[in-house]
Amino acid sequence: MMISNNYDDQYKLWNKVRQGNITVIEKVYLDYSHSLYQYGLKFTQNTQLIEDCIQDLFSRILTNSKNFSKSADPQIYLMRAFRNNLIRLMEREKKIQTREVDEYQFEILFSAEHKIIESEEAQINQQLLLQGISKLTARQKEAIYLRYTKGLEYDEIAGIMKMSIESCRNVIYKAIKSLREEIKNSGILLYLFFKKRYCS
Known about the structure:
Blueprint: H1 7-18, H2 22-41, H3 47-64, H4 74-92, H5 120-134, H6 138-149, H7 154-161, H8 165-199
């Protein structure tokens, strides 16, 4: 049974979490731990580190829930707290050594069902998209992932990534613009290549 997306239901749910309701906390864990795990894989392939981070997060919820904000969306709170903790653990493990936010790694991979391509044109378009994504900054990749894979709103993404809503919009706008230009430019080169090869 999944948690309702209704705002009032989420508010009531979070209040029960803050009250230390073990049953509700267990339900939140079951509903969100897999999603957090998948999010973590975008930063690192160290699965043990990801699992430790999730366990640490829910341990803190169990022992310190009453100090949490009174009004919070469980998904956004969990993703933000998980992200902050994971990056901190990665720094401790010397997986990344930087103060610059764009120097952490974030990889977007297509899942198995995305690899089922029905036409050669679709294969080319996917390859162009992957090529474009590989040239984005980690910050752009993460914002794109949260917006188009997780379906989050700009204010939610801004909260998770610790930036203003305006900055979030700009990051996503520039990423989309970069992808469009990459696909357009690469598409023109492919067109000229095939034209020369098959039409000359």
